[in-house]
């Protein structure tokens, strides 16, 4: 049997494997669909980060005398139901959608992984309690859970972030726990216990580094679920509230343009679709252990 | 499987015991779920009496209403009374409709079940065909094309599918109505036209998920040693699939179906609202907008029961599929 750990260290120590060449190597291993996905993800991350800087007009400004105008040199994506510039609103909406979903997904994955590690290294009853609680939460369909939370607490931006994170933490926990429990049985972890290492050290230094790849892939999926959840809520009028608008709100507010097939409604809808499909393509193309473990929207 | 042999009978008993245990654990989960729903919707948001009366209410009026609503009792008593009402089918009075929640829901539940039933009837055969086809032709162009298609469908929000469907079929082609009217005594043709788009939208998401899980279940069977053995024996691939693989894959496939039908529940929230369909999900969205807590709690519990029933069905199929239990 070849021990895998030294092999990995060796390849990391090789002088040729600088960060750039590792990225290049990783890219060359991706199939075309994965590269398309990566390009879409990077595009939306950049647009989400730099959106308002690129926007040609002010988000709330009424700049066109026509409503539901089609493409033109002044307004690349036409105008919306009040004569505002669709491109500017789209860029600002992307910032809300991408920013909120990233923060929520990060919170959900971190909480899920943290609780999973706690459940793994702590005494059995801690695991029983946390797992029972998470199993209960996971038995409430996510949209239903989110609706109950919105009804109880309202939907300010911070609350939406917390609600989306709470909704998808149980799923993240379940996957991270399955990984951590498996790793906890490995010889090297048992040796660490026998050495007398503390629980915190074992969780952080022995288990966590070896489950980081699947947890990251799961983070990508959580991100997609949260984008879909938040834009769904906004589409129902229960998510991001005016004057702020995420991509789902943009589809909702321009719904009267559906009859004309207005760009103002198609553009934000397509933006959501390309973002979520992009992440899915990328995750689906990840090799081996980065693969998706389960669905669950 | 030798029917009626003593070995088989003890296997059935073992499976029965396991299924009973799952049933018990599902009931326990349901109880805990009701506790979570009650805590979030009734205890955490603060005083409903104060909120109903507004800021200018006198303390006496608030106290009177609080007493009338039973809010002056300790939390655990309120929970027990609420749970008792829920079990008896009387979850309280809807604040907005001003009639018993039970009545409001009774008028809507059959509609939601019809929609779910029709969607399942469309989605299951379609998903089976796609899933089995891509498993048989795995790693070919066909499989990759189907994979991309289902991946795209899983990733796209329901309201996008619905919006595009309305744009194409109602606005451009003018074939179908853009809202679904449900009333007594409409003809079959009328009903089919009305249901076509909601069912299509819901089926899109469900089919994609179901097909992916079916593919995984069939591929799992295809990689078993008995398939290799059958092929080495010189059987034709079609015979191997039809006679050897499918009977063994039925239970995992049904398991996958039950799991992915739970996607209907989330999808229904959006689809019923878009098509103005008078079902439980759109009722729940209305309850959220008007903060009608008794109605919201009842709808949420119905969704949780439906979800747990589907998970239970999936569990039972997984137990029945386990050859170690079947043959003991």
TrEMBL record, chain A:
Superkingdom classification of source: Bacteria
Domain spans labelled ABC transmembrane type-1: 94-283
A Pfam family: BPD_transp_1
Presence of the UniProt keyword Nucleotide-binding in the record: no
GO BP annotations listed: transmembrane transport
InterPro entries xref list: BP-dependent_transpt_permease (IPR050366), MetI-like (IPR000515), MetI-like_sf (IPR035906)
Keywords tagged on the record: Cell membrane, Membrane, Transmembrane, Transmembrane helix, Transport
Membrane topology: Multi-pass membrane protein
Transmembrane segments: 36-55, 98-126, 146-168, 219-241, 261-283
Compartmental location: Cell membrane
Cellular component, GO annotation: plasma membrane
Protein family according to the UniProt entry: Belongs to the binding-protein-dependent transport system permease family.
Name of this protein: Peptide/nickel transport system permease protein
From TrEMBL, chain B:
Protein species of origin: Nitrospirillum amazonense
GO CC, alphabetical: plasma membrane
Keyword Transmembrane helix applies: yes
Family: Belongs to the binding-protein-dependent transport system permease family.
A UniProt-annotated Pfam family: BPD_transp_1_N
Transmembrane regions listed in the UniProt entry: 26-44, 115-136, 148-172, 192-211, 253-275, 295-321
Database matches in PANTHER family: DIPEPTIDE TRANSPORT SYSTEM PERMEASE PROTEIN DPPB-RELATED, PEPTIDE ABC TRANSPORTER PERMEASE PROTEIN
Domain ABC transmembrane type-1: 109-314
Location of the protein in the cell: Cell membrane
GO BP terms, alphabetized: transmembrane transport
Membrane topology: Multi-pass membrane protein
Major site of localization recorded for this protein: membrane
Record's protein name: Peptide/nickel transport system permease protein
Keyword Membrane: yes
Alphabetic keyword roster: Cell membrane, Membrane, Transmembrane, Transmembrane helix, Transport
